[in-house]
Amino acid sequence: MKTGSIEVSRRQVLWVRHVGVVLLMMVATSACGPADGAFGSEASLVQAQELEVGDGLSHKGLALNGLSLNGLSLNGLSLNGLSLNGLSLNGLSLEGLSSPEFDAWFQTDPELGDMVMRYVVGCAAPAGVSRTYTSSSTGTTYVWVGNLGLAPDWTDGAPATLTEQRLVSACLGAHASKYHDVHIPLSVLGLSATGNPIPYTTGELQQFPEKEACFFGNLFNSEGIYVGNDGRPLNGAESTARACALSSHGNGKKQECLPLVRVKRDCAKICTLDATRTFYVSCTYNGITYPAITTRLREADIYTCGDGVCQFTEKPGRGSTYDSCARDCGTCSSP
Question: Which of 238, 259, 280, 330 is the most buried (most CB within 10 A)?
Answer without folding.
Answer: 280
